[in-house]
Amino acid sequence: MSIAEDSRELRRRRLLVEVGEQTARVVSDEIRQRHGTEAHIRFNAHALCIDKIIERYFRRVDAFKGNNDFREGDLINFSKIAGLFTITILEHKNEPLFFLSEAIAGSVYERMMVPLFVYRLIGAILSLDLTRVSGEIENDLMRCLTLHPQIKADADWLFWSFKVLQIAFGDPALSAPNPAT
Prior knowledge:
Layout: H1 7-35, E1 41-43, H2 48-67, H3 78-90, E2 98-100, H4 108-125, H5 135-146, H6 155-169, H7 172-175
Antiparallel strand pairs: 1-2
């Protein structure tokens, strides 16, 4: 099945592209404000690597469901979606996700692009208000994302941590238990 045939793959792809493009704009604006220089950063939205990330993500979802006795059609929650995407993207090493101008190549900005992208993706998936996340929590999470794979979180710890983030900083309607289940 090609990615164009399944709407859930397309939704995940659109999410990655939207967050990737937003991340590129945010970092470009930050560089312009802090350094007074134009940084040309572009998310690699048309790359085959995005399709590969989506395929690997859904393989992880299927494996998780199989290992945890999910029935056909059962869905995973947002913290698991965020965790499985985090693992998949941090382990992606093939094509670059961002194109950067030579002016910032090799800089701390280049090293932070993927961790910042993942952080913003976690926020989007969990419906977090990232402006409410305390600096200490944000720094700890960014440290884990930046130091991957030296600091490699267990998937279950990621799921739990992301659920706690969602409860603390997310939309209360998404964090509340569903009374029907």
